[in-house]
Specification:
alpha/beta; single chain; Rossmann fold; 5-stranded parallel beta sheet; globular; 13 helices; 290 residues
């Protein structure tokens, strides 16, 4: 390819239940964008089992990729092949993928795929927690095993409700911990990449600016098919937990009908504990290119 035809590959990164399926499908509506849905966390057990285990840039090994992969030659071959596929990205076929399991591995990922660009999708924390609990994803992603330990490492002075006798309150607290922990990990590494930060709320209610941020990042022009996608998918919510048919009003305030007062108190306690951490300032922007 001519150098002017080359485009960097991209990653859509989001916490579980943040609307990443919606954004994935919205980007796929563009005829020049090709995006794979969670090729690491859904097609290999490895990345789910070590989700939130942090890998640094110094741990990248050109021979085995990472010491944790030394005994997994099949997975290394898969990753090498996947990287080669991503690097085929060009102006007529911009290639990327969506993932929810790489928050702790961004520094390593930068070494593995240096040209990778990141689209970070955010959502209001109460809405994420409500959706995680209703979809019963916490056990699948091992929140109870992985999240509190890392949260306490980052915010050691937090005193919360992990001993609360109400399991629903404890579940809400741990899910909220997951949100602020992953967002803090993102804050620490996003500066390594060309990236943009967009919110689900902005995509649903004022999509022109965040869409322009994304297409500018990917060095392509917006396409009318994306506007058609938005018009079709926002009429009503239907199709189950992973559907991209979502009415904007439900995306914004649906959580208020599903969380109890005590669950909201637990979530707010976690958010207060995380206030003052640098994550808030870095990730408050609805959309912007760094």
């Amino acid at each position: 390819m001519e150098s002017t035809d080359v485009r960097a590959p991209f990653l859509i990164m989001a916490h579980h239940r943040s609307g990443s399926n919606f954004l994935h499908d919205l980007l796929q509506a563009h005829p020049a964008i090709e995006c794979i849905n969670e090729p690491l966390s859904m097609h290999t057990r490895f990345f789910r089992h070590c989700d939130l285990v942090r890998w640094s840039d110094a741990e990248f090994d050109p021979r085995v990729l990472h010491v944790a992969l030394a005994k997994h030659p099949g997975l290394r071959a898969y990753l090498d092949e996947f990287k080669a596929y991503l690097l085929e990205s060009n102006r007529t076929r911009v290639v990327g993928f969506k993932e929810t399991a790489l928050f702790g591995k961004l520094a390593w990922l930068k070494e593995f795929i240096p040209t990778l660009k990141v689209i970070f999708l955010t959502r209001e924390p109460h809405a994420i927690v409500s959706s995680v609990l209703r979809c019963e994803l916490a056990d699948f992603w091992r929140y109870r095993d992985l999240v509190p330990r890392l949260f306490q490492e980052i915010w050691p002075n937090y005193s919360g409700r992990l001993d609360d006798p109400d399991p629903q309150v404890r579940a809400a607290e741990i899910a909220a911990m997951s949100v602020v922990t992953r967002y803090e990990l993102a804050r620490r590494s996003l500066h390594l990449f060309d990236h943009c930060v967009v919110s689900l709320d902005a995509l649903m209610h004022t999509p022109e600016a965040p869409l322009r941020s994304i297409t500018d990042l990917l060095q392509i022009d917006p396409h009318a098919d994306q506007s058609s996608f938005l018009a079709e998918r926002q009429i009503t919510s239907r199709g189950g937990a992973f559907s991209s048919f979502r009415a904007p009003a439900e995306v914004r305030g649906n959580w208020r009908r599903h969380l109890s007062d005590r669950q909201v108190e637990a979530i707010d306690g976690v958010l207060r504990a995380a206030q003052g951490a640098p994550a808030d300032a870095a990730l408050a922007t609805e959309s912007g290119v760094a």
